């Protein structure tokens, strides 16, 4: 559907660039020794951040005593002569992993140390994706390996897939089985020689990797795959039979766009690549006094206009593409054409600001449907010193409005704990939503006018998902599903009952940095299994994927098949 540079290269490089953005040159060389005394302070600082900020860092790791035992083991692991920053990272990683929260992380300093070359990642030059709790070769970096597309992973260096999985799940916090698989495959451990070496110490000859694969015909074969010295991402090979050049060109400028899949406009495709780069999100952050996204706003402006942004941040935000504008045009075009089917593609969307889902649901399903979704899930915010440092007192002050008993700076906010206190009155739901929505005036003006309230809803709405449909993108999928849409694809690596909403942290002496959650979300209060894995109504299986020759747009093709619709010209 999209070019190699758009789909594959971005998927591979973006996480690494994110690590690079967290680089901390002020802390010197990563191989210089840091004294034991200073590292002990950093261990205690990390423990304090987790206990002060995270809603519950103990619940998934055996309780508070188990947590404190890991802190003590970390302290005991520091040698008298001290450690390098890279070595210290491995001491702290088990603490973070034990929280078992994919949104609470510590960044591997290797990727900001200057040692990493994204064009020579050093691992398997096979792009693995996920199917039915296994990994298969979705794309290859060298055309000589194209016959391996569709093959499933059996072992690496003699280590069986099941054991690789078990080792991987101990590396960091994960939401569910698909999260572990995403971290192991895709752009994770198998791809990066640094991580693969840690996971598979049996790997001795770093010039090649013994890889056993189950080929599509069922035969298993071991391949000694050479580790390339240099990667050419433009040379990636993957099966693709559908192309939308106009949509691809639009996505180069903004992260959300739509197209029609046939000449009669029976079926439409709305592609949302990301939920960080839309005007309404920046309006909300600006209204809340959050300035940490200002540079991102300028980058989005430059991407859209092809020119540097104005000095005034308000002018910048006003010049950023609005999802309200795009969604309004979409429903207008669909209504004019009498469109029957809408596919909403979230397969490559790792999240951002979740307010976008409100806007889309408003245009499709209407105000009443949107408001009916409010108040049915649990959301608990944890206030802390770390929260106050990041956001200031505005959030606490807002939470204390009209409270008989005000919250302190270290309390939990149970104001949205709806399942346990009974759903709030409708007036409260409306007032709360409209107060927040007013912080996005581009949408709120539309909402107040009522002109496009549930303007057009096609007969069939299907959300396309994958394990990469994460964080706020998962929330969008959840609420569309609750409103009546069906889900097709492979399950998300995001759990519906989870921790989230991130605050950055950095340790004083080592400079190691990361994120910590300060909210708990429970979208499925009475469904713990669904809360861990939301299964699609139409789950993509290996057999079904093979029937489409492992095409990267098999989900689109299958959705149209289910709907009895055609691609391209139609009768």
SSE blueprint:
Layout: H1 4-21, E1 33-34, H2 36-53, H3 64-76, E2 83-84, H4 85-99, E3 105-106, E4 126-131, E5 134-140, E6 152-156, E7 159-160, H5 161-168, H6 177-184, H7 193-199, E8 208-214, E9 220-226, H8 245-251, E10 256-260, E11 267-272, H9 279-287, H10 294-305, H11 313-318, H12 323-337, E12 341-345, H13 356-365, H14 367-372, E13 378-382, H15 385-391, H16 394-399, E14 412-417, H17 418-421, H18 426-437, H19 441-449, E15 460-465, H20 472-483, E16 486-489, E17 497-506, E18 513-522, H21 528-532, E19 538-539, H22 542-547, H23 554-563
Parallel strand pairs: 11-12, 12-15, 15-16, 16-19
Antiparallel strand pairs: 1-2, 3-18, 4-5, 6-7, 6-8, 8-9, 10-11, 13-14, 13-18, 17-18
Question: How would you explain this protein's 3D organization?
Answer:
The protein is an alpha+beta fold and 571 residues long. Helices cover 39% and strands 17% of the residues.
């Amino acid at each position: 559907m999209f070019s190699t540079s758009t789909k594959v290269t971005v998927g591979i490089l973006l996480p690494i660039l994110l690590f690079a953005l967290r680089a901390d040159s002020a802390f010197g060389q990563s191989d210089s020794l840091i004294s034991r005394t200073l590292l002990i302070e950093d261990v205690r600082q990390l423990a304090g951040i987790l206990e002060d900020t995270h809603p519950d860092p103990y619940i998934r790791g055996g309780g508070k005593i188990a947590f404190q035992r890991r802190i003590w083991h970390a302290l005991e692991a520091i040698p008298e002569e001290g450690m390098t920053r890279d070595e210290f990272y491995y001491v702290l990683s088990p603490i973070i992993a034990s929280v078992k929260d994919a949104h609470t992380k510590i960044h591997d300093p290797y990727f900001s140390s200057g040692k990493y070359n994204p064009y020579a990642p050093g691992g398997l030059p096979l792009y693995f994706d996920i199917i039915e709790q296994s990994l298969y070769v979705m794309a290859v970096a060298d055309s000589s390996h194209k016959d391996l597309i569709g093959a499933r992973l059996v072992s690496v260096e003699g280590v069986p897939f099941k054991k690789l999985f078990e080792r991987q799940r101990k590396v960091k916090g994960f939401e569910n089985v698909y999260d572990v698989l995403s971290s192991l495959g895709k752009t994770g451990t198998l791809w990066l020689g640094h991580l693969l070496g840690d996971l598979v110490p049996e790997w001795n000859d770093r010039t090649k990797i013994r890889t056993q694969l189950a080929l599509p015909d069922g035969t298993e074969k071991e391949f000694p795959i050479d580790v390339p010295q240099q990667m050419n991402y433009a040379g990636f090979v993957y099966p693709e039979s559908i192309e939308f050049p106009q949509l691809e060109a639009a996505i180069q400028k903004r992260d959300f766009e739509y197209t029609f899949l046939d000449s009669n406009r029976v079926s439409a495709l709305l592609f949302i690549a990301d939920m960080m780069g839309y005007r309404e999100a920046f309006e909300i952050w600006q209204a809340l006094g959050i300035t940490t996204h200002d540079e991102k706003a300028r980058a989005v402006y430059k991407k859209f206009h092809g020119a540097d942004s104005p000095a005034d941040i308000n002018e910048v935000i006003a010049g950023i593409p609005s999802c309200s504008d795009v969604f309004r045009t979409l429903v207008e075009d669909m209504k004019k054409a009498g469109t029957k089917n809408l596919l909403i593609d979230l397969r490559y969307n790792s999240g951002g600001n979740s307010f976008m889902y409100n806007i889309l649901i408003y245009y499709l399903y209407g105000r009443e449907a949107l408001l009916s979704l409010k108040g049915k899930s649990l959301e608990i915010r944890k206030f802390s010193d770390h929260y106050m440092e990041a956001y200031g007192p505005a959030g606490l002050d807002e939470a204390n409005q009209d409270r008989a008993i005000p919250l302190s700076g270290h309390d939990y906010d149970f104001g949205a704990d709806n399942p346990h206190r009974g759903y709030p009155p409708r007036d409260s739901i409306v007032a709360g939503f409209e107060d927040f929505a007013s912080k996005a005036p581009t949408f709120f003006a539309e909402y107040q006018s009522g002109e496009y309230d549930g303007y057009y809803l096609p007969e069939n709405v299907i959300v396309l998902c994958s394990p990469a449909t994460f964080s706020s993108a998962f929330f969008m999928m959840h609420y569309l599903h609750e409103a009546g849409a069906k889900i097709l694809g492979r399950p998300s690596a995001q759990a519906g009952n989870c921790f989230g909403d991130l605050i950055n942290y950095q340790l004083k002496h080592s400079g190691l940095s990361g994120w910590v959650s300060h909210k708990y979300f429970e979208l499925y209060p009475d469904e713990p299994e669904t809360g861990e894995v939301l299964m699609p109504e139409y789950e993509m299986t290996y057999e079904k994927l093979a029937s489409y020759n492992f095409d990267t747009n098999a989900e689109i093709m299958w959705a149209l098949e289910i709907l009895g619709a055609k691609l391209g010209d139609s009768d």
